[in-house]
Amino acid sequence: MSESLSLSVVVPVWCEAATIQSFLQPLQPVRAAGHEVIVVDADSDDGTADLAAPWCDQVLVGGKGRALQMNAGADAARGNVLLFLHADTLLPGDAVDHLERFFNSPEQWGRFDVRLSGQRAIFRVIEWFMNRRSRLTGIATGDQAVFVRTSVFRALQGFAPIPLMEDVELSKRLRGLSRPYCIGSPVTTDSRRWEQGGAWRTIFLMWRLRWRYWRGESPESLAAAYRADVRHAES
């Protein structure tokens, strides 16, 4: 008898008390179908972990840093496929059906197309470029809900312990094993950061950071530049 899909959804969070329950509620049908949801909290001081506990299978509390949190969740996972989901991103209703098709494919990893929650026309343009770029380059970002066979992820020793670009770095290694399995049914990502920072300003920031990364600049310096830009936009 062939093995069937067993999904572990890993959600890194920090200080998400205001929204964590409304985020986890749509994942309950995934749990009801026999899959698991693991929340990895970066020691929030607002009660995020306690609020999440009734809505997931495991809550882990550890050090801060998305790569470290996702690795911790993957270590605890029981499923044969890992799906890394940001706490501002919602899966489509047919996600599990698509992931079952992925599981029965020869591909080793993949990602969803992305849709931004905002209604402005500029967000449709941003989505198109994000999805098109990903299909052309074989590189995925965390907003696209990356998924990977658990055995492959562990063989590659997971995400590099870096403060930024951990998704791009992992994609480059996974791309050496197979092209990504691209799911056209999109996840929906909150457009709040684009709206707060300004859509065009955010686009140029992300392009600039990726360009600097491809030229060899350290993730640590890029993370510092990103934090400085966010603080400037909020001031």
UniProtKB/TrEMBL annotation:
Record keywords, A-Z: Cell membrane, Glycosyltransferase, Membrane, Transferase
Glycosyltransferase 2-like domain residues: 8-155
Pfam families, sorted: Glycos_transf_2
Localization of this protein: Cell membrane
Xref: Gene3D superfamilies: Spore Coat Polysaccharide Biosynthesis Protein SpsA, Chain A
Primary localization class, coarse: membrane
Domain of life of the native organism: Bacteria
Record-linked InterPro entries: Glyco_trans_2-like, Nucleotide-diphossugar_trans, Trfase_2_rSAM/seldom_assoc
Keyword S-adenosyl-L-methionine: no
PANTHER family membership: GLYCOSYLTRANSFERASE, GLYCOSYLTRANSFERASE 2-LIKE DOMAIN-CONTAINING PROTEIN
Name of protein: TIGR04283 family arsenosugar biosynthesis glycosyltransferase
Source organism per UniProt: Marinobacter azerbaijanicus
